[in-house]
Amino acid sequence: MDQKERPSFEEALKELETIVSQLEDESITLEQSVKLYEEGVKLSRFCSEILNDAELRIEQVNEANS
């Protein structure tokens, strides 16, 4: 995932699912597996950051409405 490219959460999750599927394919090379794994880790971190931000925003809304 390029820094300039900022996919939506849904796009990143879909790409992560595609990577997992590709990694399950036993016909890919070790080098391809490593590249896919690296990309998957980046996407996973990206998705986690989005979820953490969303959770923080929800907490802030709930606190403001208390």
Helix vs. strand class: mainly alpha
As a percent range, the share of helical residues equals: over 70%
Radius of gyration: 16 Å
Query: What is the 3D form?
Result: elongated
In sequence order, what are the helices and strands, one letter per element?
A: HH
Number of helical segments? Answer: 2
Describe the structure.
The protein is mostly helical and 66 residues long. The protein has one domain. The protein is built from two helices and no strands.
Which structural traits does this protein have?
single chain, 66 residues, mainly alpha, elongated, 2 helices
Helix and strand arrangement:
Blueprint: H1 9-23, H2 30-64
Helix pairs in contact: 1-2
Quick recap:
The protein has one domain (11-21, 29-64). It contains two helices and no strands.
